[in-house]
Model the fold of this input.
Amino acid sequence: MTEALKIALRNWQRERFAPIPVEYWYGKAALARWAADLSIVDSLSEEQQQQLRTVSSWNLVALQDARRAAVSFLKDHAGLFDGQAAEALARAAAAYQQETDLLAPALADDELFSRSLSGWTPDVREREREILRRAAELEELAVAALEEALEQPPQSG
Done:
């Protein structure tokens, strides 16, 4: 479990990986890039807008699924730690749960993070950016808690 947490923390700090011809963004850089892309929609061609809309929709589903899995993983393995480390893992799980709760209504909304360009107004894009901003804040809380857990001495016995 410790190694899994270390990988998660490295990927949170990792910026991107760029095999030709695509680019893969990670962690906080990915969330920032995603929100920035939503800010430039009006400067994109209709084809580029459709690509962004499709990727944005897919990313939201993947993010929520990954955070649900993180909550389960942390709760299932918290017993491997004790004391302050266990408490930190519980805080990380709680932050990821809050993020899951934040993302769920967006997935159910017909306008937010939809695959359709119809109705993708500046107001809708601003609401999407706000959701991503709040998700990034929750990610920071979770990451800080994971870092704290790893700083604790190993469980004895």
